[in-house]
Amino acid sequence: MSHNGRRRYASRAWLALMYMLTVLALIPLGLVLWFTVVKGLPSVIHPQFFFNAELPPCEPTCPAVSDAGVGHAIIGTGIIVGLASLIAIPIGILGGIYLAEYGVARWSNWVRLASDVLVGTPSIAIGLFAYAFLVVPFHHFSAYSGSVALAVLMLPIVVRTTEGAVALIPNGLRESGLALGLPRWRVSLQLILPAAAPGVITGALLAVARAAGETAPLLFTAFGAHILELDPNGPMQALPVTVFKYALLPYKSLQDQAWGAALVLIVMVLGINLVSRYVLRRQIALAGQL
Amino acid sequence: MATAVETKPVVGLSRPPREGFRVVTAAVATLVPVVLLLIVATLVAQAMPAIKQFGLGFLSGTDWNPVTDSFGALPAIFGTVATSFVSLALALPVGVAVAVVLAEPGHTRIRGIVGTGVELLAAIPSVVYGIWALYVLGPWSYEHLEVPIADHATFITWLSSPAVRSLFNAGLVLAVMVLPTLTAISRDVIKAVPRGMKENAVALGATWWETTWRVILPSARAGIFGATILALGRALGETIAVTMIIGNAFVIPHSIFQPAYTLSSVIANEFTEATGTIYPAALVELGLVLILVTLAVNIIALLLVHSTSREARLTA
Description:
With about 290 residues, chain A is an all-alpha fold. Chain A is about 70% helix and about 0% strand. Chain A has a single domain (about 75-290), classed as MetI-like fold, CATH 1.10.3720. Chain A is built from ten helices and no strands. Chain B contains twelve helices and two strands, in the order ααββαααααααααα. In chain B, α4 (about 110-125) crosses α6 and α9 packs antiparallel against α12 (about 280-315). The chains are: A mainly alpha (about 290), B mainly alpha (about 325). Chains A and B meet through α1, α2, α3, α4 and α5 of A and α1, α3, α4, α5 and α6 of B.
């Protein structure tokens, strides 16, 4: 084979290898989804799984259809993540607006660096922080402390995505508002923020999805509970905690509950993710029209 | 009696600029660095009893015994570093390959699907990876990777005595988890390589691979390195999935196919049951070591990634 022929051949071989590695990268996604569905479905097809609370292991005389469920964990996740969102989303949006509108200030760069570092901070360390601040002084575990831990996780995500979305808005809109004599806060909150809403909502949804899947910061804050708890001042169950605790126990009935909870969790988290992606695509299309 | 002179301006133009909104948003934004510092400060304060008692010996000690209040972190530090390196060794070639494929022009639909797929890997909760690793990946890897490798490499001790819950399997699941970080940032830095450089190489007769390997990847090198370090930060701090598959043995294993422990896993498993003063403080000190290492790693990585994108902008 000629020298050039060999070079072309080698190039094609490397290209093929790159594509094969790309396919390899997607295999785990398929496998995780497949096994979660296959192993979780037998629990999830019974409606009581969504309403009942968990049951202790029934071995060796398990009924054909288990009455166990993760209703208490679904509601618990809703309350804990909801409270976290109430804290993190407004603060994150205002912080993001600051970075986008006054982004040249030297202080902004420090805030940006801190956000990016906080995104990479181990969630278990944030859990320890919430424990020291909100569990130790009150001498009991609480959903509140779990919410604060999750809020710390969500905050930098909301800040950075809001900044990105607001920065996409053309300067013309800002200038027209200011030319009409509107004060800056009205320009930012009533003109720019609505125009950037899809991007901001995407960021908030991504943060919610991330928080809903977190286990480590809840282990010693919200702690978990075996029954439905609605008081955020006490311990509360969450879906990821159910998966973590029951997957490791040697009872088939509990492992089934764990797989069912994992399926509910993954559907929730990936659902939120896909919705936010759709919203973001619309935002980019809209920004292109402006 | 003198009358006060009205100095109020007639037109609004000479009004001083309103700074209220800037001040309020700046104050809110400042919460982010404040929280970060507060986390570190809190961990230092909570770990103080252990820091005072053990000093630097905490980092080199290998004994972890709550009964005798004797605590050393070395096995956990070793496990954290070892799992992270196994995961990067596995994820780096794959991640860069995906990034190269994604940064190519054309076939936007297929590339869109691949890109979304890889990003969804990042969206799957850690605990779901954990249960999958425990029941699917771990047993598979034990049978099809660990046992064959151990059988063929009988003379290498660090590749012997396979187990389902092992340091290697923890690294394997971590590799899947850090792949999206690695890919997303590598793709961006590869895309930021000026088009002219690629066109010059092609015009000189270079093939696709020669262009990629000798022109594109070298100029994206620092950024890819930054992406790797950022992925390292993620791998170091990952807790739940690792806790479920690593086997939770507080030793420095003689083989990567043996159970081990990581800093975050020790905290996740033991913190709620820790009583007394020294034991919880020692666990928090593990968290402090972890957060300081990840902070340093993340800051280095961010500086690397930012400097390459700035360079690319200057040369473009």
